[in-house]
């Protein structure tokens, strides 16, 4: 078949290219079907389907437009979107489809800025097919999803998936379909096996490319970050709390006190499950009212108190000044109206929090600063401080410990 030969030629070209060569393991994974049973293209995270009539009769800018669609499906597989975001799709299928497409398409354009191999596909009328918006550059899929849900009706007049939502350029659902139902049919063991094999395929190509050295394949797609183990921020928070301010409440013989072992004396150690006193300081500066950041850090506060039992919590809102909102426990903070009613909106100066603690003789076991990290100074601290930075993975505080909330 002519379409089959064309498809294979484009596929081989992408696999040999500097821009998309690291996807060759994904391109060879699973099964690929050319069929007119689907309108455009589709993946279930394991296999791919492409409509040859759509690729070669309805795409004006071939072969680059078709190459874009092929790489788009491979990126769905590489990022394991159909497995990771099933819960989001169950809540809002349209927004999940759009969020993953926005995320992928920008990466494809970054990887090939001069359109040497791919370019946004065009229909026969010269209109772009698919979603792209520079606003979402470097955003996570979940953050894009939140933004699309918040915006509601936008300017897009999409067809099929994503109809009428979002402000991105393109026809919304005109590029591909996402087979969430097919992905859900896989058992947990099967889905886990697919995820592990996909990661291994990416790692093998990255490893081979690193051995090549200069002149090797580009990773502008960010594949390495997809297979880099990530530490859950709650685990990092728990470790920080345990190491700095875990309250010792009871004796236990399970672990003898090592201070006396050299004397052949067996003594118990102290252990505990609660934390005594903590400051949760929420950034309420002007930048936090953008892109749903304030809602995010407020919800993470609930995540903190659900994760750890804290006896005494000072809730502070801060921008250029610190506003003490009250004293709570893990149980009472969850339902506190102060959690939803914020005070602030001005500049950003974390020093106001450290100064407030000194002035009011508040000596907590630690301070958790929840912020977007858009600050000029970082304060002067006499107690352990943890910076929980939301949606700003490129910023790390120069003092204390930093974790990133995604």
Write a concise synopsis of the structure shown.
By secondary structure, the protein is α/β, with parallel strands linked by helices. It contains 15 helices and twelve strands.
Descriptive terms for the model:
406 residues; alpha/beta; Rossmann fold; six-stranded mixed sheet; elongated
Secondary-structure element sequence?
A: HHEEEHHHHHHEHHHHEEEHEEHHEEE
- Main-sheet strand order equals 9-8-7-10-11-12
Shape descriptor: elongated
C-alpha end-to-end distance = 47 Å
Gyration radius from CA atoms, angstroms? 26 Å
The percent range for helix content is 25-40%
Q: What multimeric state do the chains show?
A: single chain
Strand content: 15-25%
Q: Helices and strands: which structural class?
A: alpha/beta
Mean pLDDT: 85
Describe this entry's structure for a reader.
The strands form 3 sheets. A 6-stranded mixed sheet has the order 9-8-7-10-11-12. Strands 1-3-2-4 form a 4-stranded mixed sheet. Helix 4 packs across helix 7 (93-111) and helix 7 packs across helix 8 (141-151). The chain is 39% helix and 15% strand. It has 406 residues and is of the alpha/beta class. It has 15 helices and 12 strands. It has 2 domains: 2-220, no CATH class; 233-405, 3-Layer(aba) Sandwich (Rossmann fold). The chain has helices at 2-16, 24-27, 52-57, 64-78, 81-84, 86-91, 93-111, 141-151, 180-185, 188-212, 223-227, 233-245, 293-307, 330-333, 351-359, and strands at 32-34, 41-43, 48-50, 177-178, 250-252, 269-271, 274-283, 309-318, 322-328, 366-371, 385-390, 401-405.
